[in-house]
Amino acid sequence: MEQPTLDVADLTVRFGGVLALDGVSLKVEANEIHGIIGPNGAGKTTLFNAVCGFLRPARGTIRYRGKALLGTAPHQLARLGIARTLQSLGLWPGLTVLENLLVGSRVRPNFFASLLAMPRADRLEWRLREQATQVLDELGIVSVADAHPAALPYGLQKRVILARALMAEPELLLLDEPASGLSAGEIDRLAELVGRLRRRMSVVVVEHHVDLVMAISQRIHVLNFGHVIASGTPPEIRGNREVSTAYLGEDVKTAEGGTGA
Ligand SMILES: Nc1ncnc2c1ncn2[C@@H]1O[C@H](COP(=O)(O)OP(=O)(O)OP(=O)(O)O)[C@@H](O)[C@H]1O
Ligand SMILES: [Mg+2]
């Protein structure tokens, strides 16, 4: 059996008196899109922060492709193949879109091998620019490479965020509310993009937009007050009484006619 890409077990995080996560366990398999849903304050972002080493859990383990991840510093994540987008945009306003992609991009080890014959440092810069252009093209935004992010519509800025995360060529991509603020058409496009990414990575999507999560995820975990209250396939989550009464309510019914399953 292949190792899960991400294996979180009994994760518990406290902020003073607040138990933000209480014994959360979940596995994300290779090439899986895994949805995390739950109301505000459920602990979704805290889960990402723990995986990324931004906080120290009180208890539990986090394994990435079979290796313990706790104690890994956030700046080491890109090298391991983990990339994340933040709930807020976090683009550098003074840089162009392309320059934003170059900041913090990771150079693959095999790439160094190919560079051995090339003496000049600007080859590296050239290669990274080429990669950034490819990523922008994949996301359909290569035409705005030289624009400043603040001049772009919000939906395009969100795509730049995704592009920047893809520069690391991650094997695990963590998306925190990628659909927030997007129009219905943009959400459809996002679903299609993330669906394609699955061929080369695992994706964990934290989202309030339940229809989107139902449509793109193979499996879903539902958090409430730091607890996993349900997990399973989209149809299983739709049919879960605790989820529908405790949290999703009418959303579950509207999702049924959607693009899921
Ligand atoms: N740095 C922090 N210091 C203190 N409390 C925090 C901190 N971060 C999160 N919390 C608390 O932990 C709980 C979980 O928060 P978290 O941000 O993970 O929720 P969330 O599910 O991402 O919510 P949202 O959908 O609103 O983004 C909340 O009660 C929150 O107030
Ligand atoms: Mg959050």
Summarize the structure.
37% of the residues lie in helices and 23% in strands.
How would you describe the overall organization of this protein?
This protein has 261 residues and is of the alpha/beta class. It folds into two domains: 1-81 and 170-261, 3-Layer(aba) Sandwich (Rossmann fold); 94-165, no CATH class. It has helices spanning 44-51, 77-80, 97-102, 109-115, 122-138, 154-166, 184-197, 210-216, 234-238, 241-248, 250-256; strands at residues 6-15, 18-28, 33-37, 59-64, 67-68, 82-85, 172-176, 202-206, 219-224, 227-232. The chain has a six-stranded mixed sheet, with helices on both faces. Strands 2-1-4-5 form a four-stranded antiparallel sheet, with helices on one face. A hairpin with a 2-residue loop joins strand 4 and strand 5. The longest helix has 17 residues, at 122-138. The two termini are 25 Å apart. The model is unreliable at 250-261 (pLDDT under 50). Adenosine-5'-triphosphate binds at residues 15, 18, 20, 38, 40-46, 87. Residues 15, 18, 20, 38, 40-46, 87 line the site of adenosine-5'-triphosphate.
